Amino acid sequence: MKPLPSTSSKTPVKFRMPTSENLVPIRLDIEVGGQRFKDAFTWNISDPDSEVSVFAKRTQKDLKLPLAFATQIAQSIQTQQTEFRSYKGQEMLTGEKIVPIKLDLRVNRTLIKDQFLWDLNNFDSDPEEFSKTFCNDLGIEDPEVGPAVAFAIREQLYEIAIQSVATARESRNAKKGRRGEYSSISRSTGAALDLMKLFSNRYSGVRKRKEWDVFEPMVDMLSNEEVAALESMVERKPR
Amino acid sequence: MASTEPPAAVTPPSSKPNLLPLASPTIITPSAAASVAVAPTASSSSPATPSVATPRPIPSDAEVFHIPSYSCWFSLGDISECEIRCLPEFFDSRSPSRNPKAYKYIRDSIVKQFRRNPSSKITFTEVRKTLVADVISIRKVFDFLDAWGLINYSPAALNKPLKWEDKDSKSSQHAADSPAGPSLDSTPPVRETSKRLCGSCKSVCSIACFASDKYDITLCARCFVRGNYRVGLSSSDFKRVEISDEMKTDWTEKETLQLLEAVMHYGDDWKKVAQHVGGRSDKDCITHFIKLPMGEQFASSAEFGSSINKLNQMKDDNNISSSSSPSKRLCLSPLADASNPIMAQAAFLSALAGTGVAEAAAQAAVTAVSEMGQGEPKADIRSLHGVQGLQDASITSNGSDVLKSVEEAHSGVNPKPEEKKVNVEEVEEEIRRVAEVQMKQIQEKIVHFEEVDSQIEKEWKQMEQMRDILFYDQLNLLKHERAIRKSGQQAAEGVRTQGDYVS
């Protein structure tokens, strides 16, 4: 095992999505006059051409939604964008972060459950590529699954990135001289696993057999009734 | 990575693909499952059989997709230079997620998705829901494909009976969207009318349009101004055509005859003319009258015919100026009262045509005359009369120089067609004559002023006389007054002395 460079755990990094492209996950959940519109997609925030209002108008027109949606959509996207940008100048500590990413989503009729480890330090990571490979390998026919998977991964990464910003702030305020910064980080962010603990098996990097089930992806196709049942359950919850 | 460049020039769609539409369809080599056939932008009856002869037979089991001829560079297997040019951000390695592979993935998925159901239009939202990429990249590629007609392009939409569609170099989206068919029906043609449809924006031309006879294209004013015409055309190829009177109704022979009668009778009173014609406003009458070819009306007077014909020819060429010059008409009204109605007509026409035009025409006619040599004495006498009459009239009009030339023109003009050259001496003579006329004008004015002056003097003298008389009367009055007072006093004294005697 290669010793990891110590700099990666100590020096703070400017906030960004820990992926190759600084794409923001945007989630829309708008209700206007009894009609509910839910959507989730990735938005390129560094592109100067990205016009929020144009996109909103287009979505509204394409889906034949009432006009009020366009402004709401635009607003929602804008708020999420500004939120992302507000984190921009701040620092985050990355440490040795291998985080488990969990997938538990239902897209139309496909149900997906999965768990895997993701390296936060790897700024070249690409959730889109992962998602494409995922769909190809598992033979998922529904083309809408791909973007949903990529979005889910991104969203979780985003959450973790925000948390790391918060911890960076904390540790700056806290007294200096605390030993082993990375350990404190791993304590505060419960999701991160210690590399050492993970690779406790000294002889091989292969996972223990009993953990195989946890990390195996599960794809299930639902029938129409099950979909209907699930949807009504979801809708009942917020009420 | 790029495929071979097509022979036609390719420009980015943001500045509209101004390509000359290829006459014959081109067939792209089959890639994967489907082969793509290109139909010309002209109407094709069914998707399966292109109307123009194909260079190669299409394999019978392949699916046929239609894309416009200016997108013939497209192929599913490669990325062409056109795409690299239009979407540079995917190819300049500036951002890691925008690379050629990602571009190809997005593009191919969009195109395949569209081709699964080519008869219905695919929306951006449908596409972005199914693609694993950020929505902005998807949107860019989608817009690009849309603009170049690689998706959402169906030749069935071209089957509508559009007049100018085969000259249209824009994508058929406009043909599908703008219902040119219904617009043809909805405007009720009272009599036979030529509907003018703009070739590029497919709107009905309302006020004015620009027609190019060379290529038989019509553009509405907006498209012409914006430059929405094909490569190879310039603004000089287009001629302005007024639509407003054409659109409404065309003039029948009967109406034209009535109009001419009315003009003969009423001259310049267009209201009466309009009444006489019936069903036309006075403005309509005026505009139509201007556009009438005048030559046949004056066929009887041979000496005027040619010059007026020439005037008319030049007038027809400069239709723009004549159709919008009511102000010129106004300044002719003093002349219209001239005794000779034909003279009035000539003056009217020459004013409409513009001084330069009429002068050139007249001068040309004059040169023809001078080349001819001596004119007949009859013509001379008549011309003299004409000259004098016109001279009087010209003094009161604005375009005196024009009339001078016109008068020269019909002083013994023979219908001789060739008159191109204008001698320098002729020009000098003309100028001299013009100067003479101007001087005469000034002289007349001076004379007039002198008269006015003398009148004023007379009145002044009268006023003085009256003042003297008044003074004299006043004096008399004073004298009488004094005399009366004296006599009064004397009478009073006389009475007193008598009274003394008595007492």
TrEMBL record, chain A:
- GO CC terms in record: nuclear chromosome
Q: Does the keyword Acyltransferase apply?
A: no
Give me any GO biological process, just one. chromatin remodeling
- Fetch the Pfam families from UniProt: SNF5
Q: Tell me where the transmembrane regions lie.
A: none
Q: Which InterPro entries match?
A: SNF5
The subcellular location is:
Nucleus
Q: Keywords for this entry? A: Nucleus, Transcription, Transcription regulation
Q: Which family does it belong to?
A: Belongs to the SNF5 family.
Supply the name of the protein.
Bushy growth protein
UniProtKB/TrEMBL annotation, chain B:
Q: Domain SWIRM spans what residues?
A: 65-162
Pfam families xref list: Myb_DNA-binding, SWIRM
Q: Where is the SANT domain?
A: 246-297
What the entry lists under Gene3D superfamilies is as follows:
Homeodomain-like (1.10.10.60), Winged helix-like DNA-binding domain superfamily/Winged helix DNA-binding domain (1.10.10.10)
Domain (HTH myb-type): give its ranges. Answer: 248-285
**Which parts of the sequence are annotated with region: Disordered?**
1-22, 169-189
InterPro entries according to UniProt: Homeodomain-like_sf, Myb_dom, SANT/Myb, SANT_dom, SWIRM, WH-like_DNA-bd_sf
Localized where?
A: Nucleus
Q: Which GO terms describe its molecular function?
A: DNA binding
Domain Myb-like span(s) in chain numbering: 243-293
**Entry-linked CDD domains:** SANT
Q: Name one GO cellular component term.
A: nucleus
Q: What is its main location?
A: nucleus
Source domain of life: Eukaryota
UniProt keyword list: Developmental protein, DNA-binding, Nucleus, Transcription, Transcription regulation
The protein in question is named SWI/SNF complex subunit SWI3B
Q: Which organism is it from?
A: Linum tenue
Q: What is the lineage of its organism?
A: Eukaryota, Viridiplantae, Streptophyta, Embryophyta, Tracheophyta
